[in-house]
Amino acid sequence: MTVTPELLLEAYRAGVFPMAEHRDDPDVFWVDPRKRGVFPLDGFHISRSLAKTLKRDTYTVSRNTAFAQVIDACADRTETWINHDIRRLYQELHNRRSAHSLEIWRGSALIGGIYGVTVGSAFCGESMFSRERDASKIALAWLVDLLRRTGFTLFDTQFLTPHLASLGAIEISRDAYRKLLASALRRQADFMSADLAESGQDVVQRNTHTS
Questions:
Q1: Of the residues 3, 97, 143, 156, which has the fewest C-beta atoms closer than 10 A?
Q2: pLDDT digits over 47-68, tens only?
Q3: How far is residue 197's CA from residue 189's CA, in Å, rounded to a whole number?
């Protein structure tokens, strides 16, 4: 079966997503986890140490300026489920404004980032990477802040990892996820409808007020 960008979006609306066994595997299979990881948008946990890092603002943040670099960095590991077709498909979704990235920079060096797909008011996080300590945590903090302010109601992380759990992500059943997704699909959110936070200080303050 040939996977098209249109079919890929329909899969997300149905609650499934694609993976490959490894980067050189030409085949793609669909995943529908029995347990799903999600980030409650009002429950992101910023520890004291992460708050200090965010407030220092020794980094810069951008949005949709290096999508290809982010997905390549996410695939740059010993084992990856991102094969050539998956990379191509998400780049096509990005070109259609249905997939987005958020990048963390140290000077001109890309040190962290995350990318995902948007359907309705759901942001389906695909993968993230970190080349410096806390870079992926910084990306998540800025992303959650942006999602809150642009009308998103669901942040899907696919699976729950200890790293995500430490930041407030939880695991829910497949049925519970599908109910949240159905609700999110009845609303529209626009990833580009608000500016990024002015500073890490703003991210911390808004998170404190809403958590």
A1: 97
A2: 999 999 999 999 999 999 999 9
A3: 17
